UniProtKB/TrEMBL annotation:
Protein name from the UniProt record: CHK kinase-like domain-containing protein
Pfam families: EcKL
Transmembrane segments: none
InterPro entries with a match to the protein in the record: CHK_kinase-like, EcKL, Kinase-like_dom_sf
Organism (species): Clastoptera arizonana
Segments forming domain CHK kinase-like: 115-307
């Protein structure tokens, strides 16, 4: 879908494209396409044709633009857009300086109206979620190492500027003052899941256990999302394969970038880990390698801190206990988020243009309809069995 450019001009890119202050940029053409699978803002890929200093060569560069959605306003209403703007502007540069590695895309223009970001795809990064494939063990390990460094860097930055990290990590959804807005969404997700699995012969024995849990999970989410745990870190908050891009050499992963920092929270790192594993990693990988995955995270996190002469390391027994006690996060993520990530392009159409009132309505919430998708029907019974074996359910 091609849109008009009445809100952006060639002058927007003249400063962005300069290699140095003396360059004269002549922008010849700007075109853009609206990208799919963006529910909280408008996301575009922009192509700019230009010359530098009257040279003959015409160069084409591409960028990603994020812009407020004029109809879907809940991202702005809940401060998600301002949070991401703040993190791109002040947070990521500080985290990256600690570990000496890039964590997200480069930024070129950041203001209240739009963000111009590096087009990672033009630099040979790829998003596996576009193929609807859950991650294998090798991809999982690379993400675990990078998010461990992200988390560890936030511990270092917190010691230097605690107010700044607290601002980055202010909870968006799961807080007491928003009980009236989100509590019903959480309960409805578990209720609809219970109703759906009651028709699945291999999973119907878990129906009542999930119904029994639905009232408690909101309180647990509220508790765990706000400065909970032995060691608190800045969580990405939406750590799924949708928001992770990989670069290859050409077979092995050589680099990773995270995108979409609208839901960051300052709390226990197991929130990110549970969410990531239960939305993005093949369940067979989790079942076969969970202990190794947690050890890899722990060793990378602690190693990164010790390199910075920081002693706020995680104790293995405390870390594993926190992870086990947070299994409810994984179950909730698998109920309300996993259906979106497994949906194909035709199925995901139902999410376009949805407003917050529809998300609050259990009869209209399009995510709940995605629980009936064939792929979810295959994956979710295995996840339920995994949690049963971890004694999350009392049947």
């Amino acid at each position: 879908m091609v849109e008009s450019l009445d809100w952006i001009t060639p002058a927007t890119f003249e400063e962005v494209l300069k290699r140095n202050k003396t360059d004269e940029i002549i922008v010849l053409d700007v075109s853009l396409k609206l990208l799919p699978k963006s529910y909280t803002c408008k996301l575009y890929r922009v192509y700019v044709k230009y010359k530098i200093n009257l040279e003959k060569e015409v160069i084409t560069s591409s960028f990603i633009i994020k812009r407020k959605h004029e109809h879907i306003t809940f991202a702005a209403d809940f401060g998600m857009i301002q949070k991401e703007l703040f993190i791109y502007k002040y947070g990521l540069p500080k985290l990256e300086a600690v570990i000496g590695e890039k964590l997200g895309p480069s930024t070129y223009l950041l203001n209240d109206d739009l963000m111009i970001l590096q087009d990672l795809c033009s630099d040979n990064f790829h998003n596996s979620a576009a193929c609807g494939i859950q991650l294998d063990y090798n991809h999982c390990k690379e993400v675990i190492k990078r998010i461990a460094k992200f988390h560890a860097a936030s511990v270092v930055v917190y010691e230097q500027e605690p107010r700044l990290v607290n601002k980055f990590g202010e909870e968006v959804f799961y807080k007491k003052e928003l009980h009236g807005k989100f509590h019903s969404v959480v309960e409805d997700a578990l209720q609809v899941l219970a109703e759906e699995i009651s028709t699945w012969p291999e999973s119907k024995q878990f129906t009542q256990a999930i119904v029994n849990m639905k009232n408690e999970i909101w309180q647990l989410l509220t508790r765990y999302s706000n400065c909970f745990g032995k060691v608190c870190v800045l969580n990405h908050g939406d750590l799924s394969s949708n928001n992770i891009l990989f670069k290859y050499d050409p077979i092995n992963v050589v680099d990773i970038r995270f995108i979409d920092f609208q839901c960051c929270r300052y709390t226990t790192p197991v929130m990110d880990l549970q969410f990531f594993l239960c939305t993005s990693v093949d369940i067979n990988v989790i079942q076969d390698h969970l202990s190794d995955i947690l050890d890899l995270y722990l060793n990378t996190f602690n190693g990164t801190l010790l390199e910075q002469s920081n002693q706020n390391i995680l104790v293995k027994s405390d870390f594993e206990l926190e992870f086990n006690n947070a299994d409810f996060v994984g179950l909730y993520a698998a109920s309300i988020c996993l259906p979106q990530f497994l949906a194909n392009e035709e199925e995901i159409e139902c999410l376009k243009g949805v407003n917050f009132d529809e998300f609050k309505n259990s009869c209209k919430n399009p995510i709940f309809k995605l629980m009936k998708s064939p792929k979810y029907r295959v994956v979710m019974p295995k996840i339920l069995e995994y949690f049963y074996n971890r004694q999350l359910f009392t049947v």
